[in-house]
Amino acid sequence: MKMFKRQPSPPPGSFFLFGPRGTGKTTWLKTQYPKACVVDLLSVATQMTLSARPDRLREIVMGNLTGTDTFVIDEVQKVPELLSVVHQLMEEYRHIRFAITGSSARKLKRAGVDLLAGRAALRHLHPLTAGEMQEQFNLEAALQFGLLPVVVSSPSPADALAAYVGTYLREELLLEGLLRNLGAFSRYLEVASFSQGAFMNASEVARECAIDRRTVNSYTQMLEDMMLAFSVPIFSKRAKRLLVSHAKFYLFDAGVFRMSRPKGPLDTHAELDGLCLETLVAEHLRAWADYTGLANALYHWRTKAGNEVDFIVYGEDVFAAIEVKNSSSLAQRDFRGLRSFREDYPEAAAFLVYRGRERLLRDEVLCLPCAEFLASLSPGVSINRLHPGRR
């Protein structure tokens, strides 16, 4: 299996590490804490034992304290009752560190747990980034198969991606008791994929899937709880124009999106590649925001008149507008949204990310090849510093 040095740094104390299955949470924790005692809740035997007797976790911790002070609890949503025991142990033994992974917040919410009342930091792990892969990053492969480590590391990425979508996004959700109707969810996932990078109209999706709107909303919330989808809200701070109010919907990985979306004679490669490119940029920006550790957030901007910018990154030391174009050459119309945005927000650094090879500065907009832009996103370094006029 290919190994990559991941960008996030662990906090000094106990923490939760959330992220979709297949993003490498367990592998990353093994590299950070090679001597940790691991409680693997993906093991059916371990899960059944601790489900019946959550307090047995105390016995495990007490029995291993002489060898380590770090305990990994893998996929805690399988037995959320363990968090009460963890809370007690943290109160009694302040030197113990717990690293608790999870790929779904849904069961934790239903169980009414409080995520240790703020006593543990919250971290997220995303699919691989260009900065983590360095010279092994291949833009074309990323657009085709995505950047899940379990897929990238496979000798057959196409088969691994198909298994991930077919097994995890469908069958495992059914096994977890999160679905009652696998067929309805499969139809929803296909129809929802046509809303990638756009507003998802729940009523239209419900009509096409022959299910009610509440079920659509429940499925969408389920995907977000399991970190398999996310929404990008509208940027409206000090708005000077009439804006749309809808968030944009994204499945979390370009490969997962491509595999989920039905294809036919009317689907062009350029349209699909464009959405995959936008998804890839969105996920890199989300990873950068999380790994940087500051209060940075991702938005989009669209006026009622139709001017739009794909992404706005706003935070303590960053204000950047980023337009993504799936073309190797640039036309004046490609700058319209950025020009409009900068008329209202001249403080923002403007970027146009495209498929060309040249690095250009045009009308105060820095145009960057996509692979170069993605590789430049480094935790702790403001995106604004990439722009020559904002350093």
Give a quick summary of the entry.
The protein is α/β, with parallel strands linked by helices. It contains 16 helices and 13 strands.
N-to-C series of helices and strands:
EHEHHEHEHEHHHHHHHEEHHEEEHEEEH
Which CATH class of one domain applies here?
Alpha Beta
Whole-angstrom Rg: 22 Å
Task: Please state the average pLDDT score.
Answer: 89
Q: Approximately what portion of the residues adopt beta-strand conformation?
A: 15-25%
What is the makeup of the main sheet? Answer: 6 strands, mixed
The side-by-side strand order for the widest beta sheet comes to 8-9-10-11-13-12
| Form type | globular
What is the SS-derived class? alpha/beta
CATH superfamily of one domain, called what?
P-loop containing nucleotide triphosphate hydrolases
Number of strands: 13
CATH topology of one domain: Rossmann fold
**Poorly predicted runs of 5 or more residues:** none
For the terminal residues, how far apart are their CA atoms? 39 Å
